[in-house]
Amino acid sequence: MKSIIASFFIALLLTACNGGQPEELKSPEFYFQEGESYLERGLYDNAIESWEKVRDSFYSPELTMKTELKMAETYYLAERYPEAASAYRDFIQQYPGDNRNGSATYWLAMSYYQQILTKDRDQTSTRNALNVFRRLLAEYPGERDIAEINELMAYCRNRLAAHEVYIGTFYLRTKHYQPAVDRLEAALAQYPDYPRHDRTYEALVSAYLNLNRREQAEDAFARLTNAYPDSDALKKASRKLAK
């Protein structure tokens, strides 16, 4: 009986020892394909974890480059836009001569674009997106449809214009009239194609009148009349001038 019990415990001990052995390490290629499989199923976090193993293995320069691009793509698909921007930016900086940099530049711009905030908030992402779109057109003119890029750039410029006008009208409401004039005139000069500059001119009329600069107020009204003859802002500005 004692020998049977002893044999049982020896078998149990051997089983436990075998169970405690570390899992066999898989190759970087395995983890790369595993990441691809996770990506196809929309399991973005799992895909990134697999690709981190590939990247950290330093297996080969080419596989590392492919993995870093895959990680950037997956961050974007997962709507982790700050991480996507960082990953694309790092790729471009680390591999300046790579033929995939045109695509990476586009997606870097889009990663910034997806982070654009409302007009009353910080516009750093808007400026970053606009600058990278410009670089894309200058360095990789055939990478994407030019009409698409121009449309995206116009959106960025309009958001920046709206931000400047928002700040200008805030100064106007708080009776800081010279800063209001400075912001509003800058918005007109820097973003002449902004479609809502009728409100900019209307605000300028008010700001100049409050500074007792009637001649400039009348000039702003004339510019409003010329650029937006059918705008409701004309009536409001006219009433202000008539007071």
Primary descriptors:
single chain; 243 residues; mainly alpha; Serine Threonine Protein Phosphatase 5, Tetratricopeptide repeat; 12 helices; elongated
Notes on the structure:
With 243 residues, this protein is mainly alpha-helical. Among the domains are: 28-78, no CATH class; 159-243, Serine Threonine Protein Phosphatase 5, Tetratricopeptide repeat. Helix content is 76%, strand content 0%. The chain has helices at residues 2-19, 28-40, 44-57, 61-77, 81-94, 101-113, 124-139, 146-173, 177-190, 197-210, 214-227, 233-242. α8 runs parallel beside α10. The longest helix is centred in the middle third of the chain and has 28 residues, at 146-173. Mean pLDDT is 90; it is low at 1-23.
Helix-strand makeup class: mainly alpha
Classified in CATH, the superfamily of the domain at 159-243 is: Tetratricopeptide repeat domain
Known CATH architecture of the domain at 159-243:
Alpha Horseshoe
- Principal-axis shape: elongated
- Summarize the biggest pleated sheet: none
Estimate the helix proportion, in percent.
Answer: over 70%
Reading off the top of the CATH hierarchy, the class of the domain at 159-243 is best stated as Mainly Alpha
Q: Approximately what portion of the residues adopt beta-strand conformation?
A: under 5%
Rg value = 30 Å
pLDDT averaged residue by residue: 90
| DSSP helical segment count | 12
The CATH topology of the domain at 159-243 turns out to be Serine Threonine Protein Phosphatase 5, Tetratricopeptide repeat
Question: Termini distance?
Answer: 113 Å
Detail the poorly predicted runs.
1-23
Order of helices and strands: HHHHHHHHHHHH
Number of strands: 0
